[in-house]
Give the backbone structure.
Amino acid sequence: MSDNQFLIPAKFGYRMPAEWHRHAATLMHWPSNRETWPGDRLDIVEPVFLQIIETISRYEPVILLCDPAAIQKAQKLIADRKIIQNRIHFIEIAVNDVWARDCGPICIYREVDEVIEYAMTDWEYNSWGGKYPPFEDDNQIPSFLAEKYQIPIYQTGIVLEGGSIETNGRGLLLTTESVLLNSNRNPGLDKPEIESFLADYLGIEKVIWLKAGLAGDDTDGHIDDLCRFINEDTVFTSIVNDTGNVNYQVLQHNLTLLRTATDQDGRPLNVVEIPLPETKIEGTTVDGSEYVPASYANFYIANGLVLVPLYDHQFDNDILELFKSYFPDRDVIGIDCSDLVWGQGSIHCVTQQLYGVTL
């Protein structure tokens, strides 16, 4: 147990940075869970992971956690692809699944005498309300990384996934009631109590609560499939125009909330609507859903890079051009994630930015 277990990091000036704050590395897990990727699904999704790893590694190091049963295969596939080896840092450790965003540490920082200091926060992870046990190995990852890289860590004692929150780095946070107020996470905690934890551990000054998420999202409605900051005052938010679409009502409700919301300083947000790709699939996912949470909002901002998931030829090219117009100083690269999102997550879900690690 960390010596910091009862301390409140915000009292020491710590705050969660925005995703565009320069990273030390990206955390990922190599896929190996046969319940998530049954049959030939594992072989199908591995090339998607290789493409994500290769692309990110050109811009920043990748720390790749590999289950002991899968590490040799991962190393061979990466070597065969001729990915620069010193950009990939393999760690052999028991992992339950690939969702590094949700179980990985959420980093915080402060500036002391013009020196930036980093720490980690460790939130309990219960696989989105105990849906997919076992999850105990993934729940141990933040404390493992903090010890390995000698980074201070603050343990919160409550359940929170990284994909359920989104910040502009200035104290404003977006989330959904369907996740953070869900009884399968922290029964008994109400909205003010959750906001207090976010303030204490992430330095959050204001929370904008959207209602719910996409059909087929087994996380109960993560924000990173709905609405994301692209700078301190601008958000991309998913919409559909077809009133008969299964996601129409919830996305319109969220849009209305965003249009009337203000930032940490009381100023209205610049809300940019982005289309939702087709989310209905042929057949069903492993949990029986005929919908997947396919969303262009599940992008990842790395050092000098924006990695955008692609799914739908109707929208893909226009989406890439939109991202390029808002990120002129970064390379914008799209990756087809149709096979990845079958497992009910995409690029943002399988990545987590790390700060303060020395490689």
In short: The chain has a mean pLDDT of 96. The longest strand covers residues 115-124.
